[in-house]
Amino acid sequence: MEIRVLRYFVEMAREGSMTRAAERLHITQPTMSKQLHELEAELGQKLFTRSNYSVRLTDAGLLLLRRAQDILDMADKTQAEFRAYDAGMGGVVSVGSPESDSFKYFARAVKRVQSRCPRIRFDVLSGDSVHVTDRLDRGLLDFAAVMDRVDENKYNFLELPAFDSWGLFMRRDSPLAKKKHLTLDDLFGVPLIVSSQCLAQDFPRWFGDRLERLNIVATYNLFYNGAVMVREGLGCAVSYDKLAHTGSGSGLCYREIEGLNRSRMFIIWKKHQLFSPAAAMLLEELKSEFGKTASHAHE
What confidence tier does 49 reach under pLDDT thresholds 50, 70, 90? Predict the structure, then answer.
């Protein structure tokens, strides 16, 4: 399989039309069609079906699309790393992180590195811990930020010097807004909006056999849309503090849930990982800043 042909395939899948994909790639439609049919012959599978108006992927095509996107991401990352050698101290450093105010400590380290080497660019992927560690494991990220738990058999890590508290975002006209603090019992009978990861990992631990009594009306992956649903009156959102504006004009307020452990953020990277010069520089900055204060920092 050639990288060039995989780009043709991915673009066709995105556009749903071979003609439009060829136009975007500035090649002729017959050239693209020929290359993709040769790809099918190479793999021994039919990857797509054509109608008068669109192209649809087969099951084999959907599988290849997932693999092709990873292959292209890795190819682009590798090319960027080698260009960095020719360009001096430059290149792209990639990191994945869940939404958390604690990420500001990582951002400050990035700023210090960029002040010395302005040609370094940082590519930040937002996602939950499961998503970002999956991409780290596949070599698509240099670093990942995770909350609370670290697999010490797989990763080296540094602990950031901050904690995130769990609480409830709600409209200011919510009856619960009259309380200064909440307990888990206050969440029963309330329409709740919860992150998918929190619902799978934290709620069973918090509520045990009472979990089924909760009224979960929606889930989210990233909190921006969760906050929008709260503002529109769909429910109240369980989340970390500081993820949404609650000041004047926001219409929202936040109340901490008492009795829950605060969450810590860790920066992790794979054991025995080989870094580009730019990523290595960031790692040294992180160790210099947080290795002295984080009791769990590993070399």
Answer: confident
pTM beyond 0.90: no
Nearest to 55 by CA among 3, 6, 7, 10: 10
**H or E stretch including 63?**
helix 59-86
Average pLDDT of the chain, as a whole number:
88
Distance CA 211, CA 209 (A): 5
CA 184 – CA 206 distance, rounded (Å): 8
Of 10-14, 189-193, 214-218, the range with the lowest mean pLDDT is 10-14
State the residue for tokens 């002295």: 292
Three-state secondary structure of 84-152: HHHCCCCEEEEEEECCCCCHHHHHHHHHHHHHHCCCEEEEEEECCHHHHHHHHHCCCCCEEEEECCCCC
Helix intervals (H) in 144-255? 196-201, 203-207, 223-231
* Domains of the chain, start order: 3-74 (1.10.10.10), 88-163+264-290 (3.40.190.10), 166-261 (3.40.190.10)
Are 145 and 96 in contact, with CB atoms under 8 Å apart?
yes
**Position 214, amino acid:** L
Which among 189, 182, 230, 226 has a CA at the least distance from the CA of 210?
A: 189
* Dihedral angle, C-alpha 231, 228, 141, 108, nearest 10 °: -50
Question: Distance between CA 7 and CA 15 in Å, rounded?
Answer: 12
Q: Where are the beta strands (DSSP E) in the chain?
A: 48-50, 55-57, 91-97, 120-126, 143-147, 155-164, 166-171, 191-195, 215-220, 236-240, 252-256, 263-270
Residues 70/3, Cβ–Cβ less than 8 Å: no
Whether 149 and 274 have beta carbons less than 8 Å apart is answered as no
